[in-house]
Every structure is written in C-alpha cells, then in structure tokens.
Amino acid sequence: MKDIAQYIESCGKRAQSAARQLSNTSNAQRHDALVAMARALRLHRDDILEANAQDIAHARAEGLSEALCDRLTLNDARLELMASSIENIAEQPDVVGRIEDARLRPNGLKVARMRIPLGVIAIIYEARPNVTSDAAALCLKSGNAVVLKGGHEALRSNRIIAHLLQEALESCSLPRDAIILVDTADREAVLHLIRQKDTLDLLIPRGGEGLIRFVSENARVPVIQHYKGVCHIFVEKTADLEKAIPIVVNAKCQRPGVCNAMETLLLDAHLSLDSQARILRELHDRGVLLHADTALMNDFGKSIAMVAATDDDWPREYLALELAVARVAGLEGALRHIETYTSFHTEAVITEDPDVGDEFLRRVQSSTVLVNASTRFADGGELGLGAEIGISTTKLHAFGPMGCEDLTTRKFIVMGDGQTRS
User: Fold this and answer.
1) What is the pLDDT of residues 213-229, one digit of tens each?
2) What global pTM score does this model have?
3) 3-state secondary structure the chain
4) Which domains does the chain have, with CATH numbers?
C-alpha cells in the first residue's frame, strides 16, 4: 500500500459518513441486519475456517505463543458462539433514543436525557477474530459505525468475516461502510488510525500491555483501555473446598490465555494446611507451574513442585498454565495484596461467611468482583450483554465489560411552552 496515511484517513471518513446514515435508521432495520450477519457466518462456515487455518499455520511458523494461537483459533463451537452472540445482541432492547431521568422543572420545562450513539468507534485488537463480529454487532445495535484494526496474525480470518458482515448490511439496505476493516498488516496503520481526531469519536485498544501503552501515549482520540487482566482469587478460611477447588481450577485452567483467567491465588493463612495443600496439588496435577511465596515454599516445596516467586510475578499476566500463589493474613491481607497489584480487571473471593463476601464486594474496586464464582464470568456474554466490545479497566466513561449501552452517550432534551430565562 503506497500511502497508508491517505488510506486510513479514507477509512475514517467513510465510517463517519456511514455513522450519519445509521443515525436515521430504526431498531427494526438494525435488528434485521444483525440477523443477516449471524446467518452469513453460519452459511460461510467452511470459508471462515479455511481462512483461519491459514492464519494459524502462519502464526505457528512465526513462532507465536500458544496463548496467542489459542486466541486466534476458530472452530465450529467458537464460530457458532460468534453467530449466536450476534443474535443475542439483535434481540436486546433498543438503547438508542431511550429517554431517561425525565423531570419537571418549577418553571414548567420538561427535562430529560436521551441516549444517542457515540459516532465512529475504532477497535485495535490482537489475534481474536471473534472480536471482529462482536464489535461490529455491538456498534451496529447501538447505532455506531466501527473501524476494525486487527492484528496481522488474523488478517485472513478478519478479512472474510468483515466482508460477510458488510454483505449482510448491504442486503438490508444499510451502509456497507458502517463496518470497515483496515485491510493491511502495515504497522504504520495503527499510528495513523489513532490520530484520526476529525473522524473518530472513541478508540478501544485490546491486546498486550505494549499495544495499550502505545495507543494511550500517542492517541489524539479519546481512549478506553482494555488493560491486562491480573485477576485474583482469595480463598478465605471458611471456604468450602468442594466449591473452591472447581472454581480455582476453572479460573486458571479452562482457558489460561484469556484476560479473565486467574493469575494470582491468595490463600488465607487461617485455612488449614491440608486444605491449602489440596488446592495447590490439584493445580499442579493439571500442569500449572506454581510461583509460590516463601511461606508456601517452606511448607509445600518438598511435596509439591513449585518455584520461588519474585517481585515480578505479582503484577504479571501469564496467559499460560502458570500462577502466582501467596499466603495472606485473612481478608485484610488479601485486600492489601489486591490493592497493591490489581489491574482493576476482576477479583473473586471464595467464602462461606456472608460478611466477608459483602466486605470484599464493597472494598475491592476492580471492574468485576465476584463471590464464590470463577473469574471467567467477567465476560459480556456471561453477564447478559450478548457480547462485549472490551473490558474497560478505566472508570471513564465505562467500567468493566462494555455492551451496547456503553457505546452511547446522553444528550439533554428540553420541552417547553414558551418559557424564557429571566
């Protein structure tokens, strides 16, 4: 591509024009287009999986990590989940145009707030081709156009998915450019995209720490960070091990390469040594490399294979079958550890004491906080959003998994009957 800057500027302008057209569409029109998008993914399953297989082969040849390859991989189950997520989004109540906080002023003015689209949203993401369909569907449902910049490792998968979604839009008489894929592996594209302040209204980067920092430090467009997931689980002294062990194993082992997988396990010092050993042994037997603090090394280092944790392990996002493990002095010790090392993504407590659960919910300030459940539930689909465009770890303007409502803002609407201001 000869002029990447000109190409990116064109993408922004085309999306901006499409966003203006979307602002005049009805929920019924957008609903029909979403249904058509889901249908297209199912009809062209073989083509998508063939393109994805090429991406995976290229990624392995380049030596990409197993965690990244797992994120990249599509199969029948994941493709069906992509399609069903679009249908779920289609059936959600319409948020665009919703009237909220209506009230009557003393002077007779009727004041309310109306939800409206943000405009053009750019998503910069790595590996996961399901983000292409999730982001496109959420943006369309909320009346926004989207510019998608996936990683080079998923270019073939993203290309065919975006093409199918665009075809579905056109079949329903909606603008094709409401979904635009930046169709280049040129690294300069990201730099030019994040400077499109005249056409983009919001940037959402999803990926590694390096990508997030680069976008945040260089963008000229408002950014919502989908930062790393250093997710903690605290097993409190009253925990029922019949709950605790399956939760801990699920949080670490089900899909270790995703951002809501547990990365640090905190064990209450008042939990019996036998209970602590059972939890650690279960993880070890499932192939998890344990990075343990001094106390745990002293008690279990000879009976359970583990390595000594370093200061670098506590804020680390492993995205693999590795786990930092520490013993803490009860709830207060767990809260201090989490406060020190949290990435504000997801934290959980396993306890049979309702007061401990309530205190944990109240005092932990991460975007998703759970009691007696796996961190893997920190997901838009699992929390009833249909899908997510990202998990915001910054508190403005959204926090946690972001669905359709988080892709809108509110304007004031005022209805009068001749009032003037004195």
Assistant:
1) 899 999 999 999 887 89
2) 0.90
3) CCCHHHHHHHHHHHHHHHHHHHCCCCHHHHHHHHHHHHHHHHHCHHHHHHHHHHHHHHHHHCCCCHHHHHHHCCCHHHHHHHHHHHHHHHHCCCCCCCEEEEEECCCCCEEEEEEEECCEEEEEECCCCHHHHHHHHHHHHCCCEEEEECCHHHHHHHHHHHHHHHHHHHHCCCCHHHEEECCCCCCHHHHHHCCCCCCCCEEEEECCHHHHHHHHHHCCCCECCECCCCEEEEECCCCCHHHHHHHHHHHHHCCCCCCCCEEEEEEECCCCHHHHHHHHHHHHHCCCEEEECHHHHHHHCCCCCCEECCCCCCCCCCCCCEEEEEEECHHHHHHHHHHHHCCCCEEEEECCCHHHHHHHHHHCCCCEEEECCCHHHCCCCCCCCCCCCCEECCCCCCCEECCCHHHEEEEEEEECCCCCCC
4) 4-224+402-415 (3.40.605.10), 231-377 (3.40.309.10)
